[in-house]
Amino acid sequence: MNLFRILGDLSHLVSIFILLQKMRSTRSCAGISLRTQILYLMVYCTRYLDIFWTFNASLYNSSMKLVFILSTAYTIYLMRTVYKTALDPQIDTFATYYLVGGAGLLAVLFPYKYTVYEVLWSFSIWLESVAILPQLFMLQRTGEAETITTHYLFALGAYRALYIPNWLYRWFLEGHFDPIATVAGIIQTLLYSDFFYIYYTKVLKGKKFELP
Amino acid sequence: EHVVRGHDEL
């Protein structure tokens, strides 16, 4: 465990709290992509299958895994019940089928081992790398976002971005290298680069998030 | 050979 990884995980945790806080404070899920949330739930359910047999790994990992699965399920529940009036299927239209299909194909082509767990793990890593696309696509269609929503997206993107120095650290200092996670993590961070740029040049300077 | 000692990351 190193600092980058802890900061990454904390950033991930913070992003979830910001999202729940956004819905509570605005009493609405406007601007949030239900499709992206459903993809994340698929990511966590397929990657964290091992909570049922790796209790010994660490209490930290197991509890974080449970928190990610439960909080995302809870978010989807809220979006589909309490806040469903703000859902706009006309805007949230990204073809998620291709993302799931592409991740499935990569998982079958490049798992570390041909076991159900390893293929699902690889699937979750590839799917996570593109799960934000419906959300970013929605942002592009509306052209603007509430500030709290941009904080959520920043924290979520920072999580994988912070894992990159963690992987470098582990590669040099521990001889640990995980090519699938690293390549997918870099792709994931690149997908955020436009968003990060606008967040930095506008939101952090007190302006509203608006696309040029 | 790549080294993956289990998936210990989140």
Task: Give a brief outline of the structure.
The complex is a heterodimer of chains A (212) and B (10). Chain A is an all-alpha fold.
SS content category of chain B: little secondary structure
Mean pLDDT of chain B: 66
Largest interface summary:
A-B, 22 and 9 residues
Instruction: Give me the count of strands of chain B.
Output: 0
Cα-atom radius of gyration of chain B: 8 Å
Separate helix tally of chain A: 9
* Estimated share of beta-strand residues of chain B: under 5%
What Rg of chain A do the Cα atoms give? 17 Å
Mass-distribution shape of chain A: globular
Strand arrangement within the widest β-sheet of chain A reads 1-2
Poorly predicted spans of chain B: none
* Major β-sheet annotation of chain A: 2 strands, antiparallel
Structure description:
The complex is a heterodimer of chains A (212) and B (10). Chain A has 212 residues and is mostly helical. Chain A has helices spanning 3-26, 34-47, 59-80, 96-109, 116-130, 133-142, 147-174, 179-191, 193-201; strands at 144-145, 209-210. Chain A has a two-stranded antiparallel ribbon with strand order 1-2. In chain A, α1 runs antiparallel to α7, α4 crosses α5 (116-130) and α7 runs antiparallel to α8. The longest helix of chain A has 28 residues, at 147-174. The mean pLDDT of chain A is 95. Chain B has 10 residues and is largely without helices or strands. Chain B has no helices and no strands. The radius of gyration of chain B is 8 Å and the shape is elongated. The relative contact order of chain B is 0.30. The model of chain B has no long low-confidence stretch (mean pLDDT 66).
Provide key terms for this protein.
heterodimer, A: 212 residues, mainly alpha, two-stranded antiparallel ribbon, 70% helix, B: 10 residues, little secondary structure, 0% helix
Topology at a glance:
The complex is a heterodimer of chains A (212) and B (10).
Chain A: H1 3-26, H2 34-47, H3 59-80, H4 96-109, H5 116-130, H6 133-142, E1 144-145, H7 147-174, H8 179-191, H9 193-201, E2 209-210
Helix pairs in contact in A: 1-3, 1-7, 2-3, 2-5, 4-5, 5-8, 7-8
Chain B: no helix or strand
